[in-house]
Automatic annotation (TrEMBL):
PROSITE patterns linked to this entry: 3_HYDROXYISOBUT_DH
Keywords linked to the UniProt accession: NAD, Oxidoreductase
Cleaved signal peptide residues: none
Species annotation: Nonomuraea maritima
Pfam families: NAD_binding_11 (PF14833), NAD_binding_2 (PF03446)
UniProt record similarity statement: Belongs to the HIBADH-related family.
GO terms for biological process, alphabetical: glyoxylate metabolic process; organic acid catabolic process
Protein name: 2-hydroxy-3-oxopropionate reductase
Domain 3-hydroxyisobutyrate dehydrogenase-like NAD-binding: 161-281
Protein's UniProt keywords contain Plastid: no
Amino acid sequence: MNIGFVGLGIMGSPMAANLLKAGHSVTGFDVSAERVEQLSGLGGKGVTGVVDAVAGADVVITMLPDSPQVEQVAPLVIEYGKPNLLYIDMSTIRPETSRWVAREAAAVGVRALDAPVSGGERGAIDGTLSIMVGGEAEAFEAAVPVFDALGRTVVHVGPAGAGQTVKAANQLVVGGIYGLVAEAIVLLEASGVDAVAGLDVLAGGLAGSRILELKRHTMVKREFTPGFRIDLHHKDMGIAVAAAREAGVSLPLTGQVAQLVAAARAQGHGSLDHSALLKVIERLNG
Ligand code: NAD
């Protein structure tokens, strides 16, 4: 397939690489010229604008930071896409923005899906992302060959916006686990217990999680190279809190995690990995 790809950052770049490996042709654009050049180096075609990435594409994927960027790019995709284009937005954004994109697309015969992902940079590189998809069943079926090149767990979770609601649930769980792993490290160290040994045991028991599996050693070493930036997790906690408000439910732990992530940002750690929540818990303790 001819795939247009907009947003070649930490996630988008390895995802585009996997689409190329699967035999698709990829035409990509990013506001960063360096990112576009990187795609050309991988065998894709780099272009200098959204419209050029969309021209002639069977499928367009966007992997942008947040809702405002999707609000800016999606109308161009919809206007310049060929008839019956399949437009898959894989960014993590507000469910209501995804519903708006789906409505605008449907009005001109473009099939739109919201398909945010989980699995981080590692999952993007390995092609093992979890992909949660909202939209029409027929569009989902058409997108399966694309998803197969990018992920391992791919689930159609409901109508437009549902993918983003599932992603909000994912992010509140991830944030909560990071916060609690950080508290476990602070407790172990303050008690004179070796944190690596302690977390190694936790990772093999009921408390085990993918976060403990992948991040416990870097957290104990205080290595916070992103990965997934605190700034983006702050955005996602805002989406989760707003989604809870819209659904009329109270999520008290989500509120606390959102405040911890906000504190990490306020303390100047916005561009560090989200495991840097540990810095906030440490600062609370002197
Ligand atoms: P990133 O900041 O590394 O990448 C975003 C890219 O979009 C950048 O290269 C930026 O230059 C580009 N961009 C911004 N505005 C643009 C525009 N108008 N036109 C073209 N390009 C534009 O972010 P990322 O970590 O790759 O995350 C992308 C999305 O995926 C976010 O919504 C994030 O929440 C989500 N996500 C990230 C991870 C992760 O571990 N990094 C995991 C799951 C989901």
